Amino acid sequence: MNRNLALFAGVALLFVLTGVFQSWNLALSILNLSLISAIMALGVNIQWGYAGLFNTGIMGFAALGGLAVVLVSTQPVVEGWQAGGTGILAGLFLGAASIAAAIFAYNRLPKGRVRTWGTLAIVVGGFFLFRAVFDPAVTAVEAFNPATAGNLGGLGLPATLAWPVGGLLAAGAAWAIGKIALGLRSDYLAIATLGIAEIVIAVMKNEDWLARGVKNIIDMPRPWPVPYEVQLQQSAGFVDWATRWGFDPATASSIVVKLCYVAMFGAVLLAVIWLSERALNSPWGRMMRAIRDNEVSAAAMGKNVTRRHLQVFILGSAVVGIAGAMYTSMNGMLAPGEYNPLRFTFLIWVMVIVGGSGNNWGAVLGGLLIGWLWLIVESVGPAVMGALVAGLSDGPLKTHLIDAAQHMRLLTMGVVLLLVLRFSPRGLIPEK
Amino acid sequence: EDVKLGILLGFTGPLESTVPDMAKGAEFAVKEVNDSGKFTLGTVTTVNGDTTCVDAAAATAAAERLVTSDGVKAIVGGDCSGVTGAVLQNVARPNGIGMISPSATSPALSTAEDDGLFFRTAPSDARQGEIMADILSEKGIKSVAVTYTNNDYGKGLADSFGAAFAAKGGSVTISTPHEDGKADYSAEVASLAAAGGEMLIVAGYVDQGGKGVIQASLDSGAFSSFYLVDGMYGDSLIEAIGEPLNGSFGAVPGTDSPGAAAYEEAAKAAGFDGSNAFSKESYDAAALILLSMAAANSTNSKDWSAKVMDLANAPGEPILPGELGKALELIAAGTDIDYVGASAVELVGAGESAGAYREYEIKEGKIETVKFR
Amino acid sequence: MDILNALVAFLNFVFVPALAYGSQLALGALGVTLIYGILRFSNFAHGDTMAFGTMVTILVTWWMQSVGITFGVLPTALLALPFGIAATAAFALGTDRVIYRFYRKQKAAPVILVMVSLGVMFVMNGIVRLIIGVEDQNFADGGRFLISAGDFKEMTGLAEGLAIKGTQAVTVVTAIVVMGLLFWFLQKTRTGKSMRAFSDNEDLALLSGINPDRVVQITWIIAAALATIAGVLYGLDKSFKPFTYFQLLLPIFAAAIVGGLGSPIGAIAGGFVIAFSEVMVTYAWKKVVTYLVPESMAPDGLVQLMTTDYKFAVSFAILILVLIFMPTGLFKGKSV
Amino acid sequence: MIVVENLHRHFGGFRAVDGASLEIRTGSITGLIGPNGAGKTTLFNVIAGRLPPTSGRVLMDGEDITGLPPHELFHKGLLRTFQIAHEFGSMTCLENLMMVPARQKGETLMNAWFNRAAVAEEEERIRQKAKDVLEFLTISHLSEQKAGQISGGQKKLLELGRTMMVDAKIVFLDEVGAGVNRTLLNTIGDAIVRLNKERGYTFCVIEHDMDFIARLCDPVICMAEGKVLAQGTVDQVKNDERVIEAYLGTGLKNKVKEEAAHG
Amino acid sequence: MAEPFLIGEAMTGGYGGADILHSCTIAVEKGQIAVIVGPNGAGKSTAMKAVFGMLKLRAGHVKLDGEDITALTPQARVAKGMGFVPQTHNIFTSMTVEENLEMGAFIRTDDFADTMAQVYDLFPILKQKRLQPAGELSGGQRQQVAVGRALMTKPKVLMLDEPTAGVSPIVMDELFDRIIEVARTGISILMVEQNARQALEIADKGYVLVQGANRFTDTGKALLADPEVRRSFLGG
Ligand SMILES: Nc1ncnc2c1ncn2[C@@H]1O[C@H](COP(=O)(O)OP(=O)(O)OP(=O)(O)O)[C@@H](O)[C@H]1O
Ligand SMILES: Nc1ncnc2c1ncn2[C@@H]1O[C@H](COP(=O)(O)OP(=O)(O)OP(=O)(O)O)[C@@H](O)[C@H]1O
Ligand SMILES: [Mg+2]
Ligand SMILES: [Mg+2]
């Protein structure tokens, strides 16, 4: 226990040092991201640590959370809706209906050629019907002012509402994915979920009517109750208050905004960890561990392995979705190009493993530590390289090395990861 | 006293091979200003920050560091539109720091709230689309295939070109994206070839997927001539592909001023490739910031950013690369200047490049200017 | 109706490129599958091992070119390949000694090794960029085409051309040969069997007198050779850029998985499945159909099932479809 | 209780179970013997829903249960142990037992989160029961030991212990005796008899130790090559020529005689 | 008295935590059979592992043919002529039966076709299942593969941890016969058995282990005759 406290204190110290030696704004901004990462790591830990599900589709769920922010908080594009809103909805409905019909037919028809061809006919016919209704509507929507709109927009609701919606969206997707892929084992499941995440991103990139695709959505409203810095700076009351305490109003306003985020993210994190810990230390957690240890035996002991896997997969994904929504609403921007597996999947995995898989506190610690490191090496890497080559005489080699210093980011990450895993191979706070 | 200038570009990530020459361009301008000895506000130093091009959070944190920890007075950057928007809203505006982006071309940034702090030396995609349509229809080309890099730049360009070309009576047989940094472009080339067209419009980056698509098109004999957008401009392409590229053409921002040539010359002497995509714009961004500071006689962003539009546009004495010392003298003397720079800077609207273009053709392995638009 | 032209158009734009790309993926996947089969973890550093090997080969190629050594119509890089393999093998053995061995002794869970390999990937990534930089490198010399599209048209008088590059041919042949060798080695030779035994049950392998260190060393050497060969052939065909090599990892893993981890034949099959699905499903059949049907019926549209935006999505969808019906891949792979 | 009708289970071309028909009467302790590879474990696997049959039916109390998943069969009161121990390695022995009872309140998340008192109460009951079982199996000192780190025989005991955690109707025991100390095995035998008598469990027991079979079982079924070779009382089966040839061998007879001589 | 061929003397050690073995001694003479019996969890398997070097000893040492081998790795002990069949995880599940046997002969440089034929004679079922992955075999068949693999080594001393667990009576009898035969050729055999009566019957020496310590040590016959041993450890 003391060791764990010391570890958390150590990580806290890192943030404090960043504040002292760099700036508090930077420290808080890194902290916010780390908190979001920690929540994602918790989501992954629920899936991996509790149930042994190797999910590498984190990126997709985070992106769906981001999509929720657009759908909930941006203003609707009225012209877009008029141009083809109904067509798109009708198309989507047709698509869903034909899939449902195909599944229905597959289940109802007797096994044999009739079933195969019947189902296939429904799928193919449905596809063309879908395209016929959907495509023209999409073209119409995307034609409206493509430079700044070209989409349907959202509901214009408060951005904070997007967080739970992001969770729900991710949960829904997880349900569908789980139905398809949870029969797969270890690395096969990993690559399948990775693939599904890529598909999600491909859809978000290319379906401009949804959220403008690669053209990005910027300037989304902030979640309540986070204020805007510029507003604070204009408010006489705030400026007074800041100067009275001896702060520069610009800096103070940024810090206040970031502290608001810290409070909100922190609250979500605490809620998630409270629920996770309770669940883990209960008969439910025991059952999950049993399933993870030996599925065959758990099934023979009356546990419905498939259902439990699905449940835990949905839960974990929902947590990731919430974090993804928080991420997007903090940036105020959704850029599907941003989602790449290295950053949104494997970095989160590094957090879970470095922290100690199967242990919620470990996942949080890993999230905070690796989150900090990922952003801090951006500036520390070149500095280290500068110090390393200081002794070299000027020349092409030295310039080459200094130019290459930016890549120290990945190198440093790698070295730290290897060092941590070397000295505590089961993670910093291992599972009991 | 030091005046710090932040260079916020994607040193790692998908554009990592493009960015070094951009950063060098900006540093080159800084060096020129320092060497001139005419910059009275202090010695200019640069601090690099990494946007990774794609990771908004990392970019924001890097910007946060530049501004609140390193204390930069202005930012050259960011590079990709997405992260640029995030940095603008989350760091630049709150802290009142001005930024000039050399390569964020998304039209959406034109309407973003910026408190007058944001400029870009790259033209918005909408403008280039029209230029492309003009050039092609003048050459009597009626149908083309388009491939674009799947980001806001490529997509925006393809959209605006498609609209402009259609208005002129041309037809686009297919407009299909390619992802940068991928292993193989056979599928794209196969579709492009099947759709056909007199030539292929490549709206991508010179050392990324754009090059891959051209290579694969030539290898399979799908297309033999290409239109190259500004991101595709560069000697490195000719070096890599060689002879088959003869007869392809394109346009880059530029005027008939000798600025671009002078810059490339100087860059070569300084040991980097000034012809690479957005290197010129980066030089211009840095130069504009520093000249504006001199004109405002202040490093405060509110002050210098008010001067940018004046300096960038006529009337005034035109300033080319290598003439920053002279420009500083003129400013000190109170003479009006018109910064032309390496990429023929002309800022319009909300502070973005107006986009004069230089049309060129590749002949016998050389880039030859055809005319200016 | 013009069957010949239709066929040539199909071959030129679909079959040949997909075959070549498939072989490139397959060569990469062979390395991944070998490590998985013997050492039982997914090696994320494989893409960067490929980059490392290629980098060494390029450096040696440059040196050879500078002293005037060439290889006739074949690329000089093939001469430099052995040096690349040797250096990469040495590097791989070094990493094993310094890094992986520790976890093997600890009997760490496979996922830990995956994360460790992620760390190694970061480090190698950095090293390669530090040494050769991030830019594109073209190092192919010698003849480029076995037959070019223009020559083909001239020769046959057809409207469509068929281009086959030398590197494509070399890649396809190498992939098949290497697969055969690997299969034979693992299934038939004593050393190969001892490697499989080691992967099956390490403790029992000890009790049979198998020297674990030797098994591991051989595995790394073969994996390094495979990575270097794959990387160099890919680089010759396209070009070398560290970022692209890193990106290659995903399709390579997809190929290894679809074929079944641990199975050399699976790796080859998987490479082709991924490559062909990428190219075929998004292919616009317009041209081919136009050749085949009477003129009056020529299609207006592109006759494209999906746009190329979705080529990765499609190949992954096919991967998932395969896994639903064959949960451990086409050739009954392993799972840990 | 259980009726197996013309059951087949093939692996590729190999017929592991090849048309076996048999009946396990309610309240009996049925022994299942047969040479290695006779298909006994495969038969168990099919009955317990772990493998789908190639053809044939399994009835439980007249109800067709062919192909039901294991967890549903468990809820119907059908339990089994594994020949090769399937413990939950990273959990303690106590937890291994405590996870067994079905429909625990604490296994639904809502209760786990918001209804701790009720869960705790139930836990106490289950824990006590698990402790009793460990006590009975003479391994209570291992209650906090990880199940992955106990001896081979201890794992077998744990395997048996799990069936004692709930009220089963029928229990399939696959070689509980292999690797278990003979003195302890006698105690286990007594327990089986007691469960059978006092709680009305039906048992089906695979075992190669004929002494054990002889002590407990009536009737005994002998399988060979996927078919039922003989069935009847222990003595009938033991003296069946085909059984002796395929399974018991003549060595045993000598041994049995010897035993008799020893007293 | 001359030193026994193989002896683990006063071994003390365990799996990291508390000691399992407490100054436990086990030995076997050349060409003889020694049998270890005891309750579950007594430390029998642990003692075997300790003798084979798969466990770190805190005290005591292991000697083979007079040479101290305490510090050798398991594979070095294999090279010195020791063979071992563990109680669990004792076959290569993904390899065929034949490959399993070949792996048994891995360190042999001579032709081992003979030995393999002998093993197939002993366990005819294995010959039938030659090309099947061993993981698909029944429990008893696996056990036969495991023993067969060890026989392939042609060791000087063979250590078997419950070789007869799960094998049918007819095979068990043959197995014991065969073990006697093997011992007659001069190979020492050290085995753990729960089918203790049959095992002690053929044993030259018997050890009863309780809680990691030697409780009784005597000839097999003597132990069988000891009523206390019979009652407490052999099931009456
Ligand atoms: N998955 C499988 N694939 C192929 N053959 C199998 C498979 N499982 C079992 N078999 C074969 O089926 C036969 C019956 O096996 P089973 O495990 O039912 O035997 P058993 O009667 O339980 O024997 P034992 O007493 O040795 O445990 C064996 O010959 C075995 O090789
Ligand atoms: N891997 C391990 N880690 C920790 N303790 C262990 C481990 N394996 C066994 N033990 C403990 O060591 C003691 C001796 O185990 P061992 O396997 O030697 O028993 P055994 O005499 O062979 O019993 P059995 O007849 O049941 O096989 C047991 O109490 C067991 O719980
Ligand atoms: Mg069995
Ligand atoms: Mg044991």
From TrEMBL, chain A:
Record keywords: Cell membrane, Membrane, Transmembrane, Transmembrane helix
Annotated compartments: Cell membrane
Transmembrane spans: 32-51, 58-78, 84-105, 117-134, 154-176, 188-204, 255-276, 310-330, 342-362, 369-392, 404-423
Lineage of the species this protein comes from: Bacteria, Pseudomonadati, Pseudomonadota, Alphaproteobacteria, Rhodobacterales
Nucleotide-binding among keywords: no
Name of the protein in its database record: Branched-chain amino acid ABC transporter permease
InterPro entries, per database record: ABC_transp_permease, LivM-like
Protein source organism: Paragemmobacter amnigenus
CDD domains (UniProt xref): TM_PBP1_LivM_like (cd06581)
Keyword 4Fe-4S included in the entry's annotation: no
Its membrane topology: Multi-pass membrane protein
From TrEMBL, chain C:
Subcellular location: Cell membrane
Keywords: Amino-acid transport, Cell inner membrane, Cell membrane, Membrane, Transmembrane, Transmembrane helix, Transport
Membrane topology recorded in Swiss-Prot or TrEMBL: Multi-pass membrane protein
Protein origin, superkingdom: Bacteria
Bilayer-spanning residue ranges: 6-39, 51-73, 79-99, 111-132, 162-186, 215-236, 248-276, 312-331
Record has DNA-binding as a keyword: no
Record-linked InterPro entries: ABC_transp_permease, BCAA_transport_permease
Family classification: Belongs to the binding-protein-dependent transport system permease family. LivHM subfamily.
Descriptive protein name: Branched-chain amino acid ABC transporter permease
Automatic annotation (TrEMBL), chain D:
UniProt domain ABC transporter: residue ranges: 2-250
UniProt keywords, alphabetically: ATP-binding, Nucleotide-binding, Transport
Gene Ontology molecular function, alphabetical: ATP binding
Secretion signal span: none
Presence of keyword Nucleotide-binding: yes
Keyword Secreted in record: no
Alphabetized PROSITE patterns for the sequence: ABC_TRANSPORTER_1, ABC_TRANSPORTER_2
InterPro entries, per the entry: AAA+_ATPase (IPR003593), ABC_AA/LPS_Transport (IPR051120), ABC_transporter-like_ATP-bd (IPR003439), ABC_transporter-like_CS (IPR017871), BCA_ABC_TP_C (IPR032823), P-loop_NTPase (IPR027417)
Name of the protein: ABC transporter ATP-binding protein
From TrEMBL, chain E:
Any Pfam family hit: ABC_tran
Protein family: Belongs to the ABC transporter superfamily.
InterPro entries: AAA+_ATPase, ABC_transporter-like_ATP-bd, BCAA_Transport_ATP-bd_LivF, P-loop_NTPase
SUPFAM superfamilies in alphabetical order: P-loop containing nucleoside triphosphate hydrolases (SSF52540)
Stretches assigned to the ABC transporter domain: 6-236
The protein's name: ABC transporter ATP-binding protein
Domain of life of the native organism: Bacteria
Keyword Protein biosynthesis among UniProt keywords: no
Listed GO MF terms: ATP binding
Record's keyword annotation contains Nucleotidyltransferase: no
Keyword set, alphabetical order: Amino-acid transport, ATP-binding, Nucleotide-binding, Transport
Species whose genome carries this gene: Paragemmobacter amnigenus
